[in-house]
């Protein structure tokens, strides 16, 4: 688990009004438009008013950040990316993130974690059980017999506090109390979304605890680089720098093995179409109904480029950089008749993919996997970037 004695957060400006008419907190004497002025007329695919409410005593809103080229709309309900507009090869803006048309649908049970920050532990924990220093803990069960993405009341169901906003960034804060969904320790979390100068969506995570616990935070965006609502992602070209992956049992819990991708459908070391081997007569493919597996990234410590995916229809290319050791690739195998999506669309089977940067699933129960434990006095600090360009 990475630790840091200092903060990598930049000092930002006080929170602004939201969405399409955010006004700049900075003086601007230039005749050029500010980033927010450039974003005022951008159609983000949803209405900010449909995301305004009060849950308990907490206000929920929609915020827009961008750099004049790409624009992200984010709600503090679940710290979710609601839309992400990037230019295609013809210069047209394309929303590459799937999601619902309004907050009401994001709040429905079984909504699929669309665009959310998931935790306290992203991915699965076997039977929702683990021990820290010999003390057992039982989590909420929400995926068959297992815990998935933090449980029934994971961070995707929480209203996050918006602490800092600039034209290009949004910082959110959540205090997860001791015993939250069964996890030990009060976890103090900050997540910052930033639009970078090279057209990336950067997600930086920081957390501290008052009791030894486990932490594995990630973002659960569903992507379709042909545009949200496009029929399929099986034609997308994907490359992942991974020599090994973690096979799973019938409940999608890792067996503990680090298996070679050589001569298997899991070999994406050279770019190939997602659909090329997705229906192969491979036992792991059959278990997942396609890809729903963690890839063991071939990388050193630090931020590295570990995956690239592109759409042949739009020419949009997404590169993923991360400090994390793993990447969960989910090929939309359980998507079926997802209604009330943006623009009144309905999402179908394999109409999106997820590439979630992470530590390995069930790591608290797998001694050979990189540790996800966090102790008092240490700081969980990691970030990942989804960077966009077009295929030349």
Automatic annotation (TrEMBL):
One of its GO terms (molecular function) is isomerase activity. The keyword Aminoacyl-tRNA synthetase does not apply. InterPro entries: Ald1_epimerase_CS, Aldose_1-epimerase, Aldose_1/G6P_1-epimerase, Gal_mutarotase_sf_dom, Galactose_mutarotase-like, GH-type_carb-bd. It comes from the Bacteria. The keyword Isomerase applies. Monomer. This is Aldose 1-epimerase. It comes from Sphingobacterium corticis.
């Amino acid at each position: 688990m990475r630790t840091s004695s200092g903060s990598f957060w930049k000092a930002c400006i006080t929170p602004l009004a939201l969405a399409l008419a955010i006004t700049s907190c900075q003086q601007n004497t230039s005749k050029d438009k500010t980033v927010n002025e450039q974003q005022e007329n951008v159609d983000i695919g949803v209405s900010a008013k449909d995301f305004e409410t009060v849950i308990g005593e907490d206000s929920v809103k929609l915020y827009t950040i961008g750099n004049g080229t790409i624009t992200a709309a984010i709600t503090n309900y679940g710290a979710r990316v609601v839309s992400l507009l990037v230019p295609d090869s013809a210069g047209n803006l394309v929303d590459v993130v799937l999601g619902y048309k309004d907050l009401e649908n994001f709040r429905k049970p079984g909504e699929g974690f669309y665009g959310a920050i998931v935790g306290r532990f992203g991915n699965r924990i076997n039977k929702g059980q683990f021990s820290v220093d010999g003390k057992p803990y039982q989590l909420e069960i929400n995926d068959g017999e297992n815990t998935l993405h933090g449980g029934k009341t994971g961070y995707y169901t929480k209203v996050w506090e918006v602490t800092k906003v600039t034209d290009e960034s949004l910082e959110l804060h959540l205090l997860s109390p001791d015993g939250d969904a069964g996890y030990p320790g009060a976890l103090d979390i900050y997540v910052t979304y930033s639009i970078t100068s090279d057209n990336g969506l950067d997600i930086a995570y920081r957390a501290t605890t008052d009791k030894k616990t486990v932490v594995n935070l990630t973002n659960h965006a569903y992507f379709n680089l042909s545009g949200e609502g496009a029929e399929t992602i099986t034609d997308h070209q994907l490359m992942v720098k991974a020599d090994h992956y973690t096979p799973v049992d019938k409940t999608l819990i890792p067996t503990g093995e680090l298996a070679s991708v050589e001569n298997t459908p899991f070999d994406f070391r050279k770019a190939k179409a997602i659909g090329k081997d997705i229906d192969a007569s491979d036992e792991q493919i059959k278990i997942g109904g396609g890809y729903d597996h963690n890839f063991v990234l071939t990388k050193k410590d630090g931020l590295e480029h570990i995956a690239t995916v592109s759409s042949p229809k739009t020419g949009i290319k997404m590169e993923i950089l991360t400090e994390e050791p793993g990447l969960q690739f989910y090929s939309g195998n359980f998507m079926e008749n997802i209604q009330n999506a943006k623009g009144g669309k309905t999402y179908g089977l394999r109409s999106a993919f997820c590439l979630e940067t992470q530590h390995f699933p069930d790591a608290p129960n797998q001694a050979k996997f990189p540790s996800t434990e966090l102790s008092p006095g240490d700081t969980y600090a990691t970030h990942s970037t989804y960077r966009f360009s077009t295929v030349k």
